[in-house]
Design a protein that fits this description.
- By secondary structure, the chain is an all-alpha fold.
- Among the domains are: 31 residues; 48 residues.
- It is 61% helix and 0% strand.
- It has four helices and no strands.
- It is elongated, with a radius of gyration of 23 Å.
- The N and C termini lie far apart (75 Å).
- The structure holds zinc ion.
- The site of zinc ion has 6 residues, from α2.
Length: 115
């Protein structure tokens, strides 16, 4: 195997090979400046690392006040929780609990409406 020469000033040289020469540090700083600008502009989503929690997206605002919109929202929340609830561990347990709450709310509303 022939090792390719290290290209200084690149993310690969800085992160993978751990080079801290002036060129690599300047390249890294420029990359970080650019990344922060893209984060601020909302054109990039921050990476989620193992064990780190991503916040659930805020629910869409309910248009008007009708029960159909509320039950539709609850339905979509239950659907969104189905996948994480199927996993293992503490987060899955929490997702199952929340999904059960959502479904209980949904059926309580349905009972109220049809009563
Ligand atoms: Zn370097």
């Amino acid at each position: 195997m022939t090792a390719r020469p290290l290209v200084h000033g690149t993310e690969t040289a800085y992160r993978k090979h751990g080079c801290r020469c002036d060129e690599c540090r300047a390249g890294r700083a420029a990359y970080q400046r650019d990344y922060r600008a893209r984060l601020a502009a909302g054109t990039v989503t921050p990476a989620v690392h193992r064990g780190q929690r991503r916040l659930a997206p805020a629910p869409a605002p309910i248009e008007g006040n009708d029960l159909a919109a509320v039950t539709a929202l609850l339905e979509s929340r239950a659907r969104a929780l189905a996948l994480p609830a199927a996993g293992r561990g503490a987060l899955a347990l929490e997702a199952r609990t929340r999904r059960a709450e959502v479904l209980a709310l949904q059926s309580a509303i349905t009972r109220e409406v049809t009563a």
